[in-house]
Here is the input.
Amino acid sequence: MSLKILFIDPIGGLSGDMFLGAFLDLGLPVELLRIELEKVGLGRFFEFEVEVVERHQIAARKINFPILPEALVTPAPKTMGAVETLLAPASLPAEILAFTLKVFRHLAVAEAKVHGSSVSKVHFHEVGNYDTIADIVGVATAINWLKPQALRLKPVPLGSGSVDCAHGSLPVPVPAVMALLEDIVVVESGIESELVTPTGAAILKTLVELFPPFDKRVCKLGRSGYGAGSRKLIEKPNLLRLSSGSSEDVFISDRVLPYALETLVTLETIIDDMTPEKLAFLKDRLLGDGALDVISWSLFMKKGRLGNNLLVLVKPALETKIVNRIYAESSTLGIRRFVGERYFLEREIRSYQTSFGEIRCKIAHDKSGQIKNLKPEHDDLVALAQSHDLPLTRLEQLILAELATS
Here is the structure.
């Protein structure tokens, strides 16, 4: 099974319109974007137009939002609550709405952190215009269209100098951008200009949270798209490059071997101050959350304390949920993370009629349908063993022998 990857290369910075332009250049249908923006009712405030521009002799898409008269008399939403009110009646797909609100929530939290206020009191300034809402809804539409499963991100270039805004003259990067880029790899560009806007940083932060990093060296590269910003820099092109791709090693193995292959995340932690009853409860909750395997074993810790090693196997899409569960239900202070792959057999339950009666069996088969393993369901074996007054092990042997010749 191939993993779809989104490559993000902020050559000359990050902004909302650069993200959207790059997705359009990558193949996002303009009509799909128009449909989703119309659902929010933004067409009353602006028209949008897409043009091909050139930055350092590289062709790129640039999206523009010419303002219509109604936008001048109808103030754009300037608070988190106002944004939610605007989006609530829109019939956006759930995934698009969730992504859009998550980006605005990141913006609000960053501003609240900078100003030392609550999220509910944050007042959007430069990021509170209709074109910003369109950028974010548009990027959310693009993500729902592309449906990436992992990210590969190059370092984000930081500008320098200062910029004038509603709060006066601020250093570049502005404080909100610095808050949004925490834990993200950056690089000094040496360029005296604002390369990363709060909207661009909030979109990136949302993507990084939603999708795991792709950390393998081999992959298959797909199409690339370039989104242009408004600045014309001397040092480098003011472009964002987005590329699609797939995990090439998975692609090759998928053709050679008849077994399905998937990428999984292994989470591991050692706990030495938790009762067995609470650990058992945690394991049940993790399995209920969708973990594929939850195992633990005892070991000796410092000063002879008895501890437990907890290992959880999980699909990347559920990683955040599982990590939050471990921290909520255990006393651990740290979790190790490993990304790997596993071959697996497809499984299903089939019913068979035997001389002892009907019994369900768990069947495991490869991609071609060839059965590799068959195991009778324990509860059915118990019921048949009791009704025929036979030892459980002997009955299982007789049923397996009968099924082998059928």
Remarks:
- Residues 55 and 62 are 11 Å apart (CA to CA).
- The chain has three domains: 4-250, 262-344, 346-404.
